[in-house]
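Whiteboard transcription, Tuesday session. T.W. wrote the structure tokens on the left side:
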């Protein structure tokens, strides 16, 4: 949204005031140099501090969309080369941040495709599962290709709109697709702190007041449980409370001492929560991917004990622990069924969940089979399990057409 008489300049998630000048040069590479100032007033001090901190948190090496309000023909994809920002505060009067960005221009969406390199191997698991390779590019992408073999497609509709999810991605394929820079962030994964979306990982993050969402799943702090996992179905968010424990069901973790961002990209965010055990420590890594109906968890502790992730209150469930998952027996009031599981051998928790005795680690996933007993192919509990097993790390590159 334009700010007064100024337009918007967006670098990835970061919103800045668009300035008159944009410097460009060409040679062995094509570079862009931008500079400007953010100030309070007219921004609030909190808004200015957010912009300053997010400028300095921009990460190099990541493909980012660059968009302008008044110079839309300059919209393109870039890499960040260097960032600087001078913060000045005149007490009780004015606060300013004078910033400079040096960028490498990768090209417009007419010049480059985005290539998703899905690397690594499927999760090691105890159920002889090969899983299902899948991928979800931004809402608004076009021209998706995986080589000579085409994947299948499904649609998941979330708070951001209808998202295409590609299934059965051929082994070894690195999908290529086009996308206008102005559409690149649609359907992204985002981590907010007290309602403000964060850029990069070099951030001071409170262990309270955070939320992790991709428009299909929303994970947030809960007052009476470890966290609240919400699913977007039927045009609304639906909540279920979950606990995690490193000492059996009698002692769930309901507050956290620290929070750290390990990865913060539009396609993939990882949040690490930590809890002091006096002595010792427990950590929980929460992972959310673009287009996924599940949040992934990895719970660790320094001392072997019974680790668990389970519904905070009993919900009648059916255990398929021998096949790697647990699912609600009947549809809930919203027409869905909770589902969860692990890649490694576990025992089903009575409330509905997974637990593992005499262990220092527990991997798990939590989500819903949208539509419950009538879930479409791709949203059934077994599909969610298979997608968890074969979800691969994604790195995005800009490649010439």
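and on the right, the sequence the group agreed on:
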């Amino acid at each position: 949204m334009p700010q007064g008489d100024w337009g918007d300049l967006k670098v990835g998630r970061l919103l800045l005031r668009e300035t008159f000048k944009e410097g460009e040069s060409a040679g062995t590479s094509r570079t862009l140099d931008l500079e400007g100032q953010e100030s309070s007033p007219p921004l609030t001090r909190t808004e200015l501090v957010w912009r300053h901190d997010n400028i300095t948190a921009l990460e190099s090496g990541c493909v980012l969309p660059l968009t302008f309000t008044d110079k839309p023909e300059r919209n393109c994809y870039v890499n960040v080369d260097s960032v600087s920002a001078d913060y000045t505060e005149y007490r009780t009067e004015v606060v300013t941040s004078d910033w400079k960005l040096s960028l490498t221009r990768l090209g417009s969406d007419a010049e480059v495709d985005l290539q998703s390199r899905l690397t690594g191997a499927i999760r090691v698991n105890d159920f002889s599962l090969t899983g299902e390779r899948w991928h979800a590019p931004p809402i608004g992408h076009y021209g998706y290709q995986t080589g000579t073999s085409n994947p299948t497609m499904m649609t998941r509709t979330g708070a951001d709109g209808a998202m295409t999810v590609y299934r059965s991605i051929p082994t070894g394929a690195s999908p290529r697709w086009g996308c206008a820079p102005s559409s690149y962030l649609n359907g992204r994964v985002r981590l907010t702190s007290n309602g403000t979306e964060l850029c990069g990982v070099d951030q001071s993050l409170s262990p309270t007041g955070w939320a992790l969402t991709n428009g299909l799943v929303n994970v947030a702090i809960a007052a009476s449980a470890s966290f609240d996992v919400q699913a977007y179905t039927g045009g609304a968010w639906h909540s279920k409370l979950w606990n995690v424990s490193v000492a059996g069901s009698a002692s769930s973790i309901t507050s956290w001492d620290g929070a750290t961002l390990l990865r913060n990209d539009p396609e993939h965010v990882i949040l690490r929560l930590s809890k002091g055990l006096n002595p010792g420590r427990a950590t929980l890594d929460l992972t959310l991917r673009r287009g996924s109906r599940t949040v992934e968890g990895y719970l660790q502790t320094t001392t072997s004990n019974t680790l668990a992730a389970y519904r905070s209150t009993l919900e009648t469930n059916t255990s398929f622990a021998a096949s790697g998952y647990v699912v609600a027996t009947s549809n809930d009031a919203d027409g869905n069924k909770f589902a969860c599981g692990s890649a490694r051998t576990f025992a089903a928790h009575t409330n509905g969940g997974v637990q593992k005795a005499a262990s220092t680690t527990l991997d798990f996933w939590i989500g819903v089979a949208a539509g419950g007993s009538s879930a479409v192919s791709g949203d059934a509990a077994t599909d969610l399990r298979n997608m968890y097993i074969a979800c691969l790390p994604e790195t995005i590159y800009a490649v010439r057409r």
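Someone added at the bottom: DSSP finds two helices and 29 strands in the chain.
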